[in-house]
Amino acid sequence: MGRVSQAQAQENRQRIVDTASRLFREQGTHVSVADLMKAAGMTHGGFYKQFASKDALVDEATAHAFGELTEHRTAELGRHAGREEARQAFVDAYLSVEHRDGAADGCPVAGLAADVARTSGDSEARRVYAEGVGDFAEWLAPKDGDGIAQLCTMIGALLLARATEGSPLSEKILTAARDALTPGG
């Protein structure tokens, strides 16, 4: 079996990071390296050719997930005439049944919160997470409002809706939060 090219190695690394980012948001960072590599379609032994440790992958996957969130917000701005319109469309999509049910492709703030809270205070994942939360809150801030309060409402509602999925309460939580974050709602 021959060695892989640098380009193939980089492609493999990106596939692992993409897969980890999704699995960590959906299942948590406790996913085993073996399960992660299987989901990426690769062998367990290939992991340590790419990463010094699982913590290094958690750091990179966290940064990747926040990069996706930034891309999503930027795309929302491009689809709407004004910033407030884009912000409201983002809030509506965030507090939707589709987002509730799609944790793997969902928000890293909600998906990674519990795991990041358990990391050491000086971890790269925690630094990236804190920076991402701050950027997200700043982006959410309406002209005359508090982005942090908006973000807390959204994250809390999403987590509660996910925890009560399957009951009528879940959709009521999403609706109540959307109403609370809609001007005149």
List keywords for this structure.
mainly alpha, 10 helices, 185 residues, single chain
Verbal overview:
With 185 residues, the protein is mainly α. It has helices at 6-27, 33-39, 47-50, 54-79, 83-94, 97-101, 108-117, 124-140, 147-163, 168-180. Helix 7 packs antiparallel against helix 8 (124-140). The radius of gyration is 18 Å and the shape is elongated.
SSE pattern, N- to C-terminal: HHHHHHHHHH
Strand content: under 5%
What percent of the residues sit in helical stretches (DSSP H or I)?
over 70%
Please give the count of helices: 10
Q: Main β-sheet, in a few words?
A: none
- Structural class comes to mainly alpha
Q: First CA to last CA: what distance?
A: 62 Å
Rg over alpha carbons: 18 Å
Write down how many β-strands occur, each being a DSSP E stretch of 2 or more residues.
Answer: 0
Give the helix/strand layout.
Layout: H1 6-27, H2 33-39, H3 47-50, H4 54-79, H5 83-94, H6 97-101, H7 108-117, H8 124-140, H9 147-163, H10 168-180
Brief description of this entry?
This protein has 10 helices and no strands. The chain has 185 residues and is mainly alpha-helical.
